[in-house]
Specification:
heterodimer, A: 223 residues, mainly alpha, B: 8 helices
């Protein structure tokens, strides 16, 4: 089982690394969207600091959302998803492997580049640390919950807007606590509560979302 | 037992049994609704703080309750449809979604109308209004997924799974929004031993809640009957029904 997890993870990473230009797209998107806000609203550092947590978190959310397509689309189109489902390994484990690969390829880069954006938005350094922690706990949930939505819509023609329609409401708790943690931290207050909540949601999503995703994949494949 | 359920839940049987139920539910809904409105609008005393304008709760609160209740009904019947493959349950789930969305919309609109005199603005980002809005989005997502998938069986299963995921999420969303911001007045009815509400206000409120439940029962039967006819349009029992017309 662990072996299956490992092999699928390595396969997905290898496939993605061979398409390197595609890999950078969500990241560029993330930076680009954040850049739009100072241009659209105001570049004064007080205003930027006030809206930074929300802007960075919303942009991260959208970047993950746009990259979700990558999770199952290609495998669905070329039939390897069906092969995975036929394998004797529990589908949950395979789903978990694919989601882990997705997070390593999109979530983790977002976390790494976030300090730069904190700098752009003139966040104080304590808030940048919390931003990293909150993204580190929050982005895996975005991938996990997004996997449910993607597996439901992967067979739908032009399912992109539909995907955001069904997934964005489910992302709201993560957005609230992630952005709030950063916001509170930039006022110099403790943020343990928010981070613990994010961790709890991560534990919940980690245990339930692969189950729901594998059921959803079976529904999609039965068509 | 299983055979009995199968027979009982066949769309044909449901179709013939539900017609009189609709009449009874509608009449009961109309009577309780009219009596509840009469008590609420004319008999109940004005609120000592909010004056007459509080009376919109007799629509607003039952509508908000219904929007949650219907989501639960939807998710439970979707689960029954997925687990036991009972088509009628899928039909009930699909028929419930637009009704639940309408109740959520009604709760939002009446909340906005109430908010204007009370808070001075139609819309404030208050926790409960916001989670009601998110509930409306959940309904809309369910309906969008339902209509996007052409094959009826997998549309039911896919959107049903989404409804179940939504149920797991509703408490999380509710509490996160609650902690995020709150301006809404606290619940005044949930305390069963001693509601912090005058009995003359409580009775019409509960009557309206019963009326809305009955209205939902009637509406969901009408919609589920239509679903049954539409989905079985190529089956023999529907053909026979048409030939009799």
């Amino acid at each position: 089982m662990l072996k299956a997890y490992y092999h699928l993870l390595v396969r997905d990473l290898r496939l993605a690394l061979r398409n390197r230009h595609e890999l950078a797209n969500p990241l560029i998107f993330f930076v680009l969207v954040v850049t739009l806000f100072p241009l659209a609203v105001t570049p004064t550092s007080e205003a930027l600091r006030a809206m930074a947590p929300g802007v960075i978190w919303v942009s991260a959310l959208l970047a993950v959302l746009l990259s979700l397509d990558r999770l199952f689309k290609q495998d669905y189109d070329d039939g390897s998803l069906d092969q995975l489902m036929l394998s004797p390994n529990p589908l949950m484990i395979l789903v978990l492997a694919k989601v882990s690969a997705h997070w390593l390829l999109t979530g983790l880069p977002l976390v790494i580049i976030a300090p730069l954006l904190g700098l752009f938005m003139s966040l104080p350094s304590e808030a940048v640390t919390v931003l990293i922690y909150s993204l580190l706990l929050g982005t895996p949930v975005l991938s996990l919950v997004g996997a449910i939505g993607v597996s439901l819509t992967v067979a739908v023609n032009r399912g992109g807007v539909l995907l955001s329609l069904i997934i964005l409401p489910l992302y709201i708790p993560i957005l609230i606590f992630g952005a709030n943690a950063v916001d509170v931290a930039s006022d110099g207050l403790p943020v343990t509560g928010q981070l613990l909540f994010l961790g709890a949601v991560l534990a919940l999503a980690l245990s339930l979302a692969p189950l729901a995703t594998s059921v959803a994949l079976r529904i999609t494949a039965a068509r | 037992m299983w055979k009995w359920i199968q027979r009982f839940s066949s769309p044909k049987y449901f179709y013939s049994m539900s017609a009189p139920l609709i009449t009874w539910f509608s009449i009961a809904a109309l009577l309780t609704g009219l009596y509840g409105l009469y008590l609420g609008l004319f008999v109940a005393p004005p609120d000592y703080q909010q004056g007459e304008s509080y009376r919109i709760i007799f629509i607003h609160v039952p509508a908000a309750w219904m929007s949650l209740f219907i989501y639960m009904v939807m998710a439970v019947s979707a689960a029954i449809g997925i687990i036991w493959q009972i088509r009628l349950a899928d039909m009930v789930a699909a028929a419930s979604a637009p009704i639940g969305a309408s109740f959520a919309f009604l709760a939002l609109v009446t909340g906005a109308l109430w908010g204007k005199p009370m808070w001075g603005a139609y819309w404030v980002w208050d926790a409960r209004l916001t989670s009601e809005l998110i509930l409306l989005f959940l309904y809309l997502g369910y309906m969008a997924l339902q209509s996007a998938i052409e094959d009826q069986r997998s549309a039911d299963k896919a959107s049903g799974l989404l409804a179940i995921v939504g149920v797991v999420n509703i408490p999380i969303i509710h509490y996160s929004v609650e902690w995020w911001n709150t301006l809404h007045q606290g619940a005044t009815v949930a305390k069963f031993d001693k509601p912090s509400m005058h009995i003359d206000m409580l009775i019409p409120l509960l009557l309206m809640a019963v009326a809305f439940k009955l209205l939902y029962a009637a509406l969901v039967l009408v919609r589920a009957r239509n679903e049954a006819l539409y989905r079985d349009r190529n089956r023999r029992w529907v053909r026979e029904l048409i030939e009799k017309l």
